[in-house]
Amino acid sequence: MKIVHVASEMVPYAKTGGLADVVGALPRALARMGDDVTVVVPFYGKLMETRGFGARPVKSPKGDVQAQVGEAVVKGRLLRMELPGGVKIVFVSQSAFYDREGLYGTPAGDYPDNASRFIFFARAAIEAMLSLDIKPDIVHVHDWQAALVPVYMNSLYGDRKEFARAKTVLTIHNLGYQGLFPREKMHKTGLGWNMFTFDQLEYWGQVGFLKGGIAFADAITTVSPTYAKEILTPEQGMGLQAALDYRKGDLTGILNGIDYDTWDPKKDEQIPAKFGPGSMKGKSECKEALRMKLRLPMREGVPVVGIVGRLTSQKGFDIFEAALPELMRREVQFAILGTGEQRYHKLLRRSAKQYPDRIGLEIAFDDKLAHLIEAGSDFFLMPSHYEPCGLNQMISLKYGTIPIVRATGGLDDSIEQFDPRTKQGTGFKFEEYTPEALIEAVDMALAVHRVPPEMKAIRQNAMRCDFSWGRSAREYRRLYDKLIRR
Q1: What predicted TM-score, i.e. pTM, was given to this entire model?
Q2: How far apart are CA 225 and CA 220, in angstroms?
């Protein structure tokens, strides 16, 4: 099967979140299954050049692409490379659009021309397929930045014989980001005003790129089964619940996987001691190293709870803030790493100063420390308000670091509540989004930690879990097969 992925991010070349991890891993998993896979991504100029990768310009005329953006004809260039394992990458280069400090904006806000940047990218991705003679069976696009591709393939490019058999799939990684722009930007798309309607691209008087993808893609996926249900509700539908409900027969939730080449304590080069289900001695050494790194005192029998991620209300830091005084009454230490909203930076710095023996904190992005927290912690806390999928809880399982999560989205799908009586389950979950429910879940975890046989059992359960991309890729492959047979 010939599959083309179109996305604005891909590890290791450009990343702001989990989207990049998925686009880096899923195509490789599909290629291992024998599919012909190409990924189309923007070339972010100096951000990518510093990584020293080996993409080469495609010779003219095949390497030249152009697309109409409003009244302007914007020209770009294609670069191409092939990864070990056979995945081909096509980079769309357009220096005025992509050679910038960030992918979508700066700390001051989004780039004001993001509509033009990703109108061009969507059309250039289609032009690249035509220029390079790629006749896809499946065109799989990701999030709002690529969501206009199915719209264009069903309108401006609807009569191209090269796409006669192609089916389109849109994956929504986070419905909170929709690509909404003022109605004056509609003319930039090159689409007729007859498509600026509530059932196509119009969203409360704005142009909605993601809404267009929802209307026109042959299939829609999200990154977990529970999230696929949650986004049909007013609480989590972000204003698109009616559009999604109309397409719910074509909506599927497929849980993301994780890359066990990167995240495996038996071969992780970023931790001081390796370990696995058969020998856990290295985990104790990692815990000691973590405490030293974060200047936490060594305390026999006291568990460490790790937190890694964005310090935002969406990630549950509002209820964590409310729960913190009570949590500080427990025999527990916290190892916290991340960046986010300034209010939480200030809160955590103040709390770390007040409780230096209980809270170890780094306000930073530090991949090596992230590995050490996963390896050296006893538990991992994710009290998210909503979480489309989440990766850290699955990583934690592999490292025998037991997740404490709110039962939402992919957190609910990937973690099974532990039952001390049967010794079945892989973590601890709470339903209500309240500090009291969070504290209760932490208390359940601490109670298990005080009983070594129970703690050993839950760790063994956790480390046996399989959340590899091979499992997820097989589900996507079944979806692709179903679409092609239509």
Answers
A1: 0.91
A2: 12
